[in-house]
Amino acid sequence: VYYFMMGILLISILLLFITMPNYKFPGRFPINFRKFGNVTAFCISLTCLTYVLVYGKVLDWYDDESIRWATAVSILFAGIFLYMDVTRRSPYVLLDAFKLRTIRMGALLYLLLMVINSSAMFVNVFAGVGMHLDNLQNASLGNWCMVGYAIGAVIAMVLGGKGLHFKYLFAMGFFFLSLSAVIIRATGMMILYALTAAYANQRMPFKYLSTWICIMLTVRMVVGPSIGGAIYANVLQERQQHYITRYAQNVDLLNPDASTSFLGTVQGMKYQGKSETEARNMAAISTKGRIQVQATLSALKEMAGWTIYGGLICMIFVLVVPYPKRKLLT
Prior knowledge:
- The protein has 330 residues and is mainly α.
- 75% of the residues lie in helices and 0% in strands.
- The two termini are 43 Å apart.
């Protein structure tokens, strides 16, 4: 995938050199840090925020010094970005865009979309733990998302062209997105991804277009996946430990099934020339592995049910929220 993206970027650069006219700038080159300082501050703030969300559970959150520093830097550069953007005569991000209800609703829908879509990790974990697929087979399974994207694009164009209200299309998208099948989830994602942008662009003044693109990419590519990934990863770890503790309580030599499996593994290790201590250690590791797999699958099943409930809540939200028509602004 990375080599493919590198090739596409090289082709794009080549096309720019061939097709774009070469205009020389009189004097100094117009791009400098002064003009892009607020963008730099914005990127640093988001980078630190992503670091906190991704590595927080690994580093025990704010007990770790790097998490505290990353949070402070994120808040500091967010304040610098807001100050520089407000004081500029021609800011890159027009904060007045948030006064438009369609943009606020579009950002919220993208956030909900990416949080629910983070359940895609269930497929990867289940394929690796339950079906014992390697990384290449797991990646091949993900390629079926392209079929779902195509189906979702067709559904969005056909039903949108027939004038079906946005709320029903959004509800359909969240319903598909909450399911576990790869193609169906990809279909729901494409429906929401395409129609949310179309909804936010309704009667939007042209001056807010670049601001909306920035908001859309920020929520869609950075904030949403970071929050969704952090939520699902933390909950999965907590529920997995819960089920490991629960299942391990009844696993001892007094349990007939566990005792038979444990002693059989011990005997097999002895046949391979292992000592009594090594054989028992290997049997304990094998038993722990089986419990961990069972706990992981139970946690995935529980969280998949929660995801369906989350999708239903999002469906109800998009159905009951009002969609008032706004007068055309200039």
